[in-house]
Structure formats: C-alpha cells, structure tokens
Amino acid sequence: MMGQGGRRDPLAKLVHELAKLPTIGEKTATRLAMFILKSKGNYAESLVEAIQEVKTKIKLCEICFSFTESSPCSICMDSEKESSRVAVVEGQADLFAIERSGLFNGKYHVLQGVLSPLDGIGPDDLRIKELLFRIQSESITEIILATNPSVEGEATAMYIVKLLKPLELKITRLAYGLPMGGLLEYADRITIGKAFENRVSL
C-alpha cells in the first residue's frame, strides 16, 4: 500500500524487497514479511544484524575465491586436504554441497558464475585467469570440473578444458546419470543416456 506522497508503507516495502530474492514470488514474500512482523523477541533485529554482517564482513578468499570471513579461507588453510586436487565449481552453493557429502578431500576453485553470452558474462567475468595462475604456481596434479550439467555449465567446462589441455595435468569431469534411489521409469532421456555413457566396469 502507498502512503502519503506515493511512498510505500513499511510492510509493503518489506514485501517488495523480499520479492527481489531469487525464487521468491510476491505471495511467498508476503508470508515471509508477515512472519517477520509477527515474530517474537528480537528476531527482526537479529535478522537485520546478520544481513549487515554478511555485507560488511564476508569477502572472497584470495586463493579459491569462495566467500569467507577471513582470507585465506579455512578450506584453503586445511593441511589435511589434498592441495594437489582442485574441484572447479560455479559458486558457493556447489562447494557446500560437495563438502556436505564428505566424499572429496581436495581443495576448490570457485568461478563465481558460468559463461553466459546472452547475459553478457564472458571469460573475463569469471575467475578463470586466477585458476590458470594457481595451476602454474601450486603443485596441482588434477583439476576436477564440477560445473553443473546445464548448457552454460557444459560450455564453461569445455572452455576451461581447451585452456588446460596444453598443460601436463589430469583433467576430469564429474559423471552424470541416475541419482541414488532414482527409478529408470521416471528418468528423462538425457539422464538415461548420460547414465549409459558414464557407466563403470564391475
């Protein structure tokens, strides 16, 4: 609702700002705004403080370009992780997903996006040059391309492969296929094709 002079009232303004978040529509934004409005204690103040701290205290790691409070980040500084193996991911969410699995004990390189000509995102907008510098300056023996199986993710991976081919190191790509617990009858044609293409010997 608009107040005098065409200004939104605080609740409408909150809904408007929340609706700008990815995957949040106006209905969800309204529910979130009502939750914040009705919350007890100092939840609203804590939320504001958390948002402000993220904007003022979080920065990019100088080595892997993940978001961190201190640089280098804790993963880059972890001596128990294999520094010779580096997984190249699109963003922070992908890094978190791999870390949660507990199946990878190497380091990371966060591209902070993918190639997307339609959105005006080219190689210079990603952390590709920094990846090449790491390979030249660190004892890296394997690069694991862990970009998502999307058109943009595939294009980004192939672009990086072309750059890395002249270098003497192992380049691997995460396999795709049927997820654990998935049923063939519900899988799409591309997923089944990738599952056959990336089948392993037993």
Brief overview:
This protein has helices spanning 10-18, 26-38, 43-57, 92-101, 128-137, 151-164, 189-197, and strands at 59-60, 67-68, 82-89, 106-110, 142-145, 170-173. The protein is α/β, with parallel strands linked by helices and 202 residues long.
Topology:
Elements: H1 10-18, H2 26-38, H3 43-57, E1 59-60, E2 67-68, E3 82-89, H4 92-101, E4 106-110, H5 128-137, E5 142-145, H6 151-164, E6 170-173, H7 189-197
Helix pairs in contact: 1-2
Question: Explain this structure to me?
Answer:
The chain folds into two domains: 4-57, RecR Domain 1 (Helicase, Ruva Protein, domain 3, Orthogonal Bundle), CATH 1.10.8.420; 82-173, Dna Topoisomerase Vi A Subunit, Chain: A, domain 2 (3-Layer(aba) Sandwich). Helices cover 40% and strands 12% of the residues. The chain has helices at residues 10-18, 26-38, 43-57, 92-101, 128-137, 151-164, 189-197, and strands at 59-60, 67-68, 82-89, 106-110, 142-145, 170-173. The strands form two sheets. It has a four-stranded parallel sheet with strand order 4-3-5-6. A two-stranded antiparallel sheet has the order 1-2. Strand 5 (142-145), helix 6 and strand 6 form a beta-alpha-beta unit.
